[in-house]
Design brief:
This protein has a single domain (2-217), classed as Ribonuclease H-like superfamily/Ribonuclease H (Nucleotidyltransferase, domain 5), CATH 3.30.420.10. The protein contains eight helices and five strands, in the order βββαααβαβαααα. The protein has helices at residues 57-63, 67-71, 76-87, 101-112, 126-133, 145-151, 163-176, 214-217; strands spanning 2-10, 22-33, 36-46, 93-97, 123-125. Residues 194-223 are annotated as: Disordered.
Length: 223
Amino acid sequence: MQYIIYDLEFTVSRNARYSSEIIDIGAVKVVQGDDGLYVADTFHSFVRPSNRPVLSTDTVQFTGITQRDIDAAPLFPEAVKEFIAWLGTDSPYYLCAWGPDDRQKLVSHCRTHHVDLGWIHNTNDIQKQISRLLGSNGKYRQLSLSQALELCNIDFDGQQHRALDDAVNTAQVFMYHFDRITLVHNAADDEESRGSKLVYSSPEEEQEQYSPFGNLANLFKDR
């Protein structure tokens, strides 16, 4: 079994007429070895947005991704084709992300670009499970990735809001708590609870009581 820990970065859009687009795909392939889990391989690709190819200032500030990065990148259909080839669909795998947004955006992009959804299966939101595991005093509070790393005494490695770096750090938390995580089987069309990847939270915020606008109003906050 392979555990694909992936992360996506999107354009930041303040205009309701334009939905955000995927501009960065990063993933880590975790496998079981004789001495436990280890990172076997990584994947990374920038993605050139098709609707609004010029990045906004907010997007550049939030992600650190430049227009030069994007101009040289493939469009989504080609980038996701490379991603699918890398993960390999002949061997069983789970697709794990920090929060529900990545799965939702991946499915919607594949539908928009007429990419078959068969490879999007066994998707798991590990943010939800790990937030429950690390909750204090019996209270649930959705944790950002930075908060989860801190509670595991793991330093963030790399640059936040870059897909591969976020995937690598998510994989560290995943492997740290692997024995306590329950992974589920599903398909792309299965209904899942809706929500947003946490970008900002305060110590007082509990389950579903965080700011839904944190990723726009607090561009430089940790997730």
